[in-house]
Design brief:
By secondary structure, the chain is mainly α. The longest helix is centred in the last third of the chain and has 39 residues. It is built from 15 helices and no strands. α7 runs antiparallel to α8. It folds into two domains: about 130 residues, Orthogonal Bundle (Tetracycline Repressor, domain 2); about 140 residues, Four Helix Bundle (Hemerythrin (Met), subunit A) (Up-down Bundle), CATH 1.20.120.
């Protein structure tokens, strides 16, 4: 056992990216000059989210240890480089550190951090194979860091946009992933929409969610909350990319739809990246505008 093994148990890169979502959400929602207090709150928010994410990855690996011995035996717990007891202590410590840094912000931050921790536990322990309830939890967990960022800077009117983007994009993509995994999920008795009601109903629900995103995402531009050219280009690319996936999922038999989900899922992941870059650019432009004006 080594410190390096514990470090990798918390998926440091993924946890860092989750933490950065707080800064992106905070700066994108910024509506006034950034104060020193807000800057520290953003830093504490990023650290909080990073630790809570590390806790979530550890909890997930603890509950999946037997499956991981087969699928990913190189992971810290199944490989033996981290004991099950050690992983449990790691999860307790990272959760405690996350709550501590949230305590340095305010009561709302504690509630958000605690909610994230509870959802991560419930997902790993009970909802991973529950189908749509699990999809909802994953989508909500993706949105919480952006909500956190908006609350940190008290920019309540605009935090809804990055949070809605993260929620709807992840929920749509989770349903597409369920279609892709329909054969394996049948063996694992996963109660996904695709298995319970069929591939086409699952596809229809996924696209209702994605088309809702297409309708919502231009609103920050129309309401002039976001005015940067990079964000405008990001919106155009996201809408175009989602519409591009439509022929891959409609007017085909089920086996072709399932086969095409790999491409659809990849395109949606690119859309996520484009969206994050768009909100990030808006955040940096806000920061520059309020700093030098």
């Amino acid at each position: 056992m080594s410190l390096q093994s514990y470090f990798f148990l918390g998926r440091p890169l993924n946890s860092l990216l989750a933490g950065s979502a707080v800064a992106i959400g905070a700066l994108a929602a910024l509506s006034s000059p950034l104060t020193t207090t807000q800057l520290w709150y953003i830093i504490f928010g990023c650290i909080t989210t990073g630790f809570i994410s590390a806790y979530g990855y550890a909890i997930n690996d603890i509950f999946d240890v037997e499956i991981d011995r087969i699928n990913v035996p190189h992971r810290p717990i199944p490989s033996g480089s981290v004991s099950l007891t050690g992983a449990k202590w790691f999860s307790v410590i990272t959760l405690s550190l996350g709550l501590f840094f949230a305590f340095l912000i305010d009561f709302v931050a504690i509630l958000l951090a605690l909610s994230g921790g509870i959802l991560l536990y419930l997902y790993a322990a009970h909802f991973k194979r529950s189908g749509f309830p699990g999809n909802l939890i994953v989508a909500l967990l993706a949105a919480i860091p952006f909500i956190f960022g908006g609350f940190v800077t008290a920019s309540y009117s605009t935090l809804i946009y990055p949070a809605s983007f993260a929620f709807l994009m992840n929920l749509g993509r989770e349903l597409i992933k369920d279609i892709e995994d329909v054969y394996g999920d049948k063996l694992e008795n996963v109660q996904s929409i695709a298995l319970r009601y069929g591939v086409k109903p699952a596809r229809n629900l996924a696209y209702i969610i994605l088309f809702t995103l297409v309708l919502i995402i231009p609103f920050p531009i129309l309401l002039r909350y976001y005015t940067s050219i990079p964000f405008f280009l990001a919106v155009i690319l996201i809408i175009g990319s989602i519409l591009y996936t439509v022929p891959l999922s409609f007017n085909h038999p089920e086996d072709i739809i399932i086969r095409n989900t790999t491409s659809t899922k990849r395109i949606l992941k690119i859309c996520m990246t484009i969206g994050v870059v768009g909100f990030m650019s808006e955040g940096f432009i806000n920061l520059i505008r309020f700093t030098f004006n």
